[in-house]
Design a protein that fits this description.
Blueprint: E1 3-7, H1 12-28, E2 33-38, H2 44-50, E3 54-57, H3 69-92, E4 96-99, H4 105-114, E5 119-123, H5 130-135, E6 141-144, E7 154-156, H6 163-166, H7 170-181, E8 189-193, H8 200-207, H9 214-219, E9 223-227, E10 242-245, H10 251-257, E11 260-263, H11 267-276, E12 280-282, H12 291-302, E13 305-307, H13 315-327, H14 329-339, H15 347-360
Parallel strand pairs: 1-2, 1-4, 2-3, 4-5, 5-6, 6-7, 8-9, 8-11, 9-10, 11-12, 12-13
Helix pairs in contact: 1-15, 3-4, 7-10
Length: 361
């Protein structure tokens, strides 16, 4: 029996690909033991047990960003976290460690090396995080979601995706999706969303105040499915063909209905949209280290998407750049074809193959 330890967490971007791989390993071999390493504070503390996996705890030890008291305490805290993971590995007879970034992964990589257990790294973002930069040079395998990700020895394997996305037949589900959202399956649909919390910039451009572009989308013969985010107070004008929702728990149906998308460019979002071949205008979140623009760059280079800077995204920019794309069926078809060169639905299988290679060594 093989025992796998999957390390990662903190955010959905780390937890969701981890769970996709865990499900694949358990489905392939029900006798295998699939364990997850995470912190008490991250999303994994809730999502992992809900999915039926045992969560082994490691202390959350942030890397210091500046010289202060936390930096002085870091070495001892990090050594303690490594010791915690070494204990888990030894007690549970772990055969291989797989890290997806986040606080749990850094001590897991060091612990695996010291216990002489092979470990594999998966990086979801085009700009890798500190934990994966630490682990990659000694890893038995390094997989990345996007071409050009600067990790030593890496190869592009894609993103492990949710099962409902991997198996989605957009044409077959279109009528059901339209009924779910109260839209017409015979008319094209523009999907606008900014992640679970929404995006004020997108909401303002399409649905708020003078100059909002939703009227232009409707006048162009398109419907608009606008997911505003749970904190948004954007009012629904009650216009046929314009569905305003704060939250959607069936993004598979939203994707089934979408003929064009305007969205942020998180790693999972870009990977799912590219895998499904939907032409898109990405508006990368401007806060952070620029990883969202990098996540979208391979799709943009391939011609599957366009990129509009956050600061420039207004109702006028929608009218000047997005509406012409909605009117150009041939251009949208070319964008769909181009997505095939950057998107894959096989990310989970590719990561599992990398794990098998590490074990075979």
């Amino acid at each position: 029996m093989t025992t796998y330890l999957l390390a990662g967490g903190g955010t959905a971007g780390h937890v969701n690909p981890l769970l996709a791989v865990a499900d694949a390993l358990r489905s392939r071999d029900p006798e295998a033991e699939v364990l997850v390493l995470g912190t008490r504070e991250g999303l994994e503390a809730r999502l992992v047990p809900e999915r039926g996996y045992e969560l082994l705890i490691v202390d959350k030890v942030p890397f210091p960003r500046r010289p202060n008291a936390a930096a002085a305490a870091f070495p001892a805290q990090f050594r303690r976290a490594i010791a915690q993971v070494r204990s888990h590995i030894a007690q549970r007879g772990v055969d291989v460690v797989v890290g997806f970034g986040g606080y749990a992964s850094a001590p897991a990589y060091v612990a695996a090396r010291r216990e002489r257990v092979p470990f594999v790294v998966h990086e979801a973002n085009a700009r890798p995080g500190l934990a994966n930069r630490l682990g990659a040079p000694r890893a038995a395998g390094v997989g990345v979601a996007f071409e050009g990700t600067p990790l030593k020895g890496s190869r592009v394997v894609g993103m492990p995706l949710r099962r409902e996305i991997v198996t989605l037949d957009r044409d077959a589900r279109r009528a059901d999706a339209a009924a779910h959202f109260g839209l017409d399956p015979e008319k094209p649909v523009l999907l606008v969303f900014g992640g679970s919390l929404g995006a004020q910039r997108l909401n303002a451009a399409f649905g708020e105040g003078h100059g909002a572009a939703w009227r232009d989308v409707i006048d162009a013969g398109w419907q608009l499915l606008h997911v505003t985010g749970e904190r948004s107070e954007l009012a629904d004008p009650g216009v046929p063909g314009y569905a305003v929702l704060r939250y959607v728990d069936r993004m598979d149906l939203a994707f089934a209905l979408a003929d064009f998308i305007v969205s942020r460019a998180g790693a999972a979002t870009v990977s799912e949209i590219s895998a499904l071949g939907i032409p898109t205008a990405y508006v990368p979140y401007a806060v952070g280290n620029g990883e969202q623009a990098l996540n979208a760059s391979s799709a943009v280079r391939a011609g599957a998407a366009v990129l509009i800077p956050d600061a420039e995204f207004t109702g006028d920019r929608v009218r000047s750049e997005v509406l012409p794309l909605l009117a150009d069926e041939a251009r949208r078809a070319a964008m769909t074809r181009a997505a095939a060169s950057v998107g894959t639905r096989n990310g989970t299988e590719n990561v599992v193959a990398m794990i098998d290679e590490a074990l075979a060594r």
